[in-house]
Design brief:
155 residues, alpha/beta, Glutaredoxin, two-stranded antiparallel sheet, 5 helices, 9 strands, globular
């Protein structure tokens, strides 16, 4: 079951595009948007991450940070971030553990046995690590409701 509003965000250790570890404790102190996406270089994920890129100034004004999270490795995420001029960290959940704890995974994605990817999902975490917004879709083609995410940041 996906993480719900009011729950404590589970801790994690993920790796950024420079292979440096990032934990939940590292991001506490400010509100954070954790945006899980199925895979780099796909049209829906590119659209989503570019929308976060274009709206980052608004999220920063609201006192928050954005983190993209997907199951691809740090090298693929780095190439994806560079190609799309992403101005926020993209973290690798290559073990799929964090995706499973937060929004869940699509198992055997694209009909490929053993290829599990994160469900497109967005969580806003407050300064103390509590979930103040949760959105998860079973349709990998859906885009998150960006206005709702910004409203959650204002609360």
């Amino acid at each position: 079951m996906p993480l719900q509003k009011g729950q404590s965000a589970p801790d994690f250790i993920l790796y950024d595009t420079d292979k440096k570890s990032v934990t939940l404790k590292d991001i506490l102190g400010k509100k954070a948007v954790l945006a899980f996406f199925p895979g780099a270089f796909t049209s829906g994920c590119t659209k989503e991450m570019c929308t976060f890129r274009d709206q980052l100034g608004e999220f920063n004004k609201l006192g928050g940070r954005v983190y993209g999270i997907c199951v691809d490795g740090p090298a693929a995420n780095k190439a994806f971030a560079e190609q799309n001029n992403l101005n926020f960290p993209v973290l690798s959940d290559f073990s799929r553990e964090t995706s499973k704890k937060y929004g869940g995974v699509h198992e055997d994605f694209w009909g490929i046995t053993g290829y599990d990817v994160a469900k497109r999902s967005v969580f806003v975490i407050d300064e103390t690590g509590k979930v103040i917004y949760s959105w998860v879709t079973d349709n990998p083609g859906d885009q998150p409701p960006f206005d709702e995410i910004q409203n959650a940041m204002k609360s």
